[in-house]
Amino acid sequence: MKTIVEAVADYFQDLKEGCNNLISCEQLKEVMKKEEVYILDIRKPEDYEEEHLEGAVNIFWSEVGDHLNEIPKDKKVIVCCYSGQSAGQVVSLMRLLGYNACSLKGGMKCDLTYLPLEARCCDIKTESCEA
């Protein structure tokens, strides 16, 4: 297992080599064509229920540490939040722990036209939503 010092050194080496731990929606679409990725949505559960990337797993950002053993280390992990800021913080910690993780640039506010979504379906007449 890596020491904390080794993990931090690796993290900063990645930064020197131009790795910024971000992936755009368009890039993610291309990656998803080539490999299976693990999408981690760290938003509030109710916002995840309204709309999320297809196949995403929801773990609220403050609970990620309690669920690290459920997140695969053998897949690229894409972390998404509202705007990308919280995801960037989670990604930094995950990379220190040895995960191949990156943040969805712009979060769920990015141009989602490139990506498959799952959303709650609403009945416009009654404005009631089905799960």
Write the topology of this structure.
Elements: H1 4-16, E1 22-23, H2 25-34, E2 37-41, H3 45-50, E3 51-53, E4 57-58, E5 76-80, H4 85-96, E6 100-104, E7 117-119, E8 121-123, E9 128-130
Parallel strand pairs: 1-6, 2-4, 2-5, 5-6
Antiparallel strand pairs: 3-7, 8-9
Domain Rhodanese: 33-119
Protein name: Thiosulfate sulfurtransferase GlpE
GO molecular function: thiosulfate-cyanide sulfurtransferase activity
Strand order of the largest sheet: 1-6-5-2-4
CATH domain fold name: Oxidized Rhodanese, domain 1
Proportion of residues in helical segments: 25-40%
Q: What string gives the helices and strands in order? A: HEHEHEEEHEEEE
Q: CATH class, anyone?
A: Alpha Beta
Largest sheet: 5 strands, parallel
**Name of the CATH homologous superfamily:** Rhodanese-like domain
Radius of gyration: 16 Å
SS-based class:
alpha/beta
Strand content: 15-25%
Helix tally equals: 4
Oligomerization status of the protein chains: single chain
The tally of beta strands, per DSSP, is 9
- Please tell me the overall pLDDT: 81
What form results from the Cα inertia axes? globular
- Domains (count): 1
User: What are the low-pLDDT stretches, counting only 5+ consecutive residues below 50?
Assistant: 121-131
CATH architecture: 3-Layer(aba) Sandwich
**What's the N-to-C terminus distance?**
42 Å
